[in-house]
Amino acid sequence: MVDLKGQYQEIKEQVNNGIASVLETSAYINGPEVHAFQAELENYLGVKHVIPCANGTDALQIAMMGLGLKPGDEVITADFTFAATVEVIAVLQLTPVLVDVDLDTFNINIEALERAITSKTKAIVPVHLFGQCANMDAVLEIAKKNNLFVIEDNAQAIGASHKFKDGSVKKAGTMGHVGSTSFFPSKNLGCYGDGGAIFTNDDDLAHTIRGIVNHGMYRRYYHDVVGVNSRLDSIQAVVLRAKLPLLDSYCEKRRSAARKYSKAFLGHENIVVPKMANDSFEIDQNYSCHVFHQYTLRITNGKRDELAAFLQSKDIPHGIYYPVPLHLQEAYKDERYKEKEFLVTNQLVKEVISLPMHTELDDEQINYITEAVIGFVNDK
C-alpha cells in the first residue's frame, strides 16, 4: 500500500546524517531537531503554535484535555473513521455522539451533525478522511451558532487545504480551535516510528497544551496542570524535517496517481471513483485540495469482498477502511443509536476498497492495478 523504502532513497543522506548527529549529541527528547521541526511546520501551516507529541491519538486526547472538556460532555464526530477518533472521547469519560457521513466525500454529514446537537454538546470533531477536508464552512458556522469547540482530526490530511466561500484558503488542521495530526510512517508526512502534533492559533490554549504533553510541567518538578507523557523524539524529528520540504510534491504525486486511477475507472459500471475537488473531473466546489492519503473506490455490485480476494490472488495490495462502523463496534455500541441514522455508513462499509497510494507509484503499476480491477468487475 505504501513504498517507504523507495521514498527513503531520495532523503537517505539527509536522514542518515541527521540521525548520526542526534546520536552524537544524545539530545534524544525535546532536542534541537524537535524545536526546528516545530518552527518549520508552523511556517508551512501558517499557524501560530505547533506542539509536537508522541502520536496522533495522543494529539487528539491532549487537544480535548486542553479545552477543559468534562466527563459527560457530548462530542460529535463521524461514524465512518478509525477508532482513535472516538477512543479518546471515551477515555476522557466524555460522551461520544456518532453521526452519519456523506456518500460522496465520506466526511461528516452536515444535516446529521446539526440534528445531533443537544444542550450537552460541547465540541465537534470533523475528520478529514482519506485526505480531503470536511465541509468546514458549514462546520464552523454551526459551531459558532451553538458555541461549540471544533477539534480537527487531521491525521490523514496534512498538506490539504480548504477554500472557504469568501475565497480565503487555510491548511487542514488550522481552521478550528485546535487541530491534531499523526506522523505514523504511512501518512503523507510520516516519520519512522510514532509521532504526532497539535496545532492552534490560541496562545492560552497552546500554553496549556505545552504543559499537558510534559507531565503538566512548565518548570521541572512543578506540576501546574494534569498532564501526560507525550513527546516527539529527536530522531523522528530528523525524518520529518527531511520530508516536510517535499510534502507538497508528495501530495501532488498522490493527486497525479489518483487522476490516472480515476480516468481509467470512469464510465465503468459498478465502480465509483472518489470525489476529487478542484480538478478536471468529479468537481465539487464546496471542497478543496484532496491529498489522497487513501485512494478509495466504491464497488456497488455487492462484489467488493470478491474483488479483495481477487486482488490478493494477483499480489495487489489493498485495504478495506473500515469494515465495521464505530456504532457497531463492541466498545462503542449504545442504545441511543438507530440503524436508520447510519444508512450511508452502513452502505460504505460494504462497498469501499482502497488501492495502493504513495509517492512511488508509476504508470506500469497503475495500469496493472486498474486493468485487474476493471477486468474483475466487467467479468461480474
Q: Strand order of the main beta sheet, please?
A: 1-9-8-5-4-2-3
- The coarse silhouette is globular
Average pLDDT figure: 95
Q: How far apart, in Å, are the first and last alpha carbons?
A: 25 Å
Provide the CATH superfamily of the largest domain.
Answer: Type I PLP-dependent aspartate aminotransferase-like (Major domain)
Low-confidence stretches: 280-287
Instruction: Provide the CATH top-level class of the largest domain.
Output: Alpha Beta
Distinct helical segment count? 12
Written as H for each helix and E for each strand, in order along the chain, the element string is: HHEHEHEHEHEEEEEHEEHHEEHHEH
Q: Indicate the CATH architecture of the largest domain.
A: 3-Layer(aba) Sandwich
Could you outline the blueprint of secondary structure elements for this entry?
Elements: H1 4-25, H2 32-45, E1 49-53, H3 56-66, E2 74-78, H4 84-91, E3 95-99, H5 110-116, E4 121-125, H6 136-146, E5 149-153, E6 161-163, E7 169-171, E8 178-182, E9 196-200, H7 203-212, E10 217-219, E11 222-223, H8 234-243, H9 247-265, E12 271-272, E13 295-299, H10 304-313, H11 343-351, E14 352-355, H12 363-379
Parallel strand pairs: 2-3, 2-4, 4-5, 5-8
Antiparallel strand pairs: 1-9, 6-7, 8-9, 10-11, 12-13, 13-14
Helix pairs in contact: 1-8, 2-8, 3-4, 3-7, 9-12
